[in-house]
Amino acid sequence: MAYWLFKSEPFKFSWQMLKDKGAAGEEWDGVRNYQARNNMRAMEIGDKGFFYHSNEGLEVVGICEVCALAHHDSTTDDPRWECVDIRAVADMPKPVTLKDVKANPKLADMALVTSMRLSVQPVKEDEWLEVCRMGGLDNPPR
DNA sequence: GCCAACGTTGGC
DNA sequence: GCCAACGTTGGC
């Protein structure tokens, strides 16, 4: 079991839109970056992830989980690009902002800070628990 | 809307 | 295989 972080610009695809998809979830398509793709290839069913709003909001707004392994990205004919499906699991009771993350020394090595532009990132277990705690989730999904 | 960071492309 | 040009991302 591993932890991840998915970035999305809310005016393109928001947390609310993912929640509206329900248990079926949604294809995390459109990723055109090898590192992000490789992260998705490494994902397993049930892996948990943060859902982060970039550009607007700049905060972790919810928890999602992987519900389909990496498969071809249906939005392109290029066989190089793959994606997983994810579905919403829980709201962050209190969204954790980028500012909060940057202000917390325990999270100084988080990819969100160090690899700002990577759109699908790995999250370490201690980082996962810390961000969940900051977000008001007493029993973080794991 | 600007611009810095950084990933990708393509000529050589 | 290098590196300049270019495009995109994303914080501010």
From TrEMBL:
<dbReference type="InterPro" id="IPR047197">
    <property type="entry name" value="THYN1-like_EVE"/>
</dbReference>
<dbReference type="InterPro" id="IPR002740">
    <property type="entry name" value="EVE_domain"/>
</dbReference>
<dbReference type="Pfam" id="PF01878">
    <property type="entry name" value="EVE"/>
</dbReference>
<protein>
    <submittedName>
        <fullName>EVE domain-containing protein</fullName>
    </submittedName>
</protein>
<dbReference type="InterPro" id="IPR015947">
    <property type="entry name" value="PUA-like_sf"/>
</dbReference>
<dbReference type="InterPro" id="IPR052181">
    <property type="entry name" value="5hmC_binding"/>
</dbReference>
<feature type="domain" description="EVE">
    <location>
        <begin position="2"/>
        <end position="134"/>
    </location>
</feature>
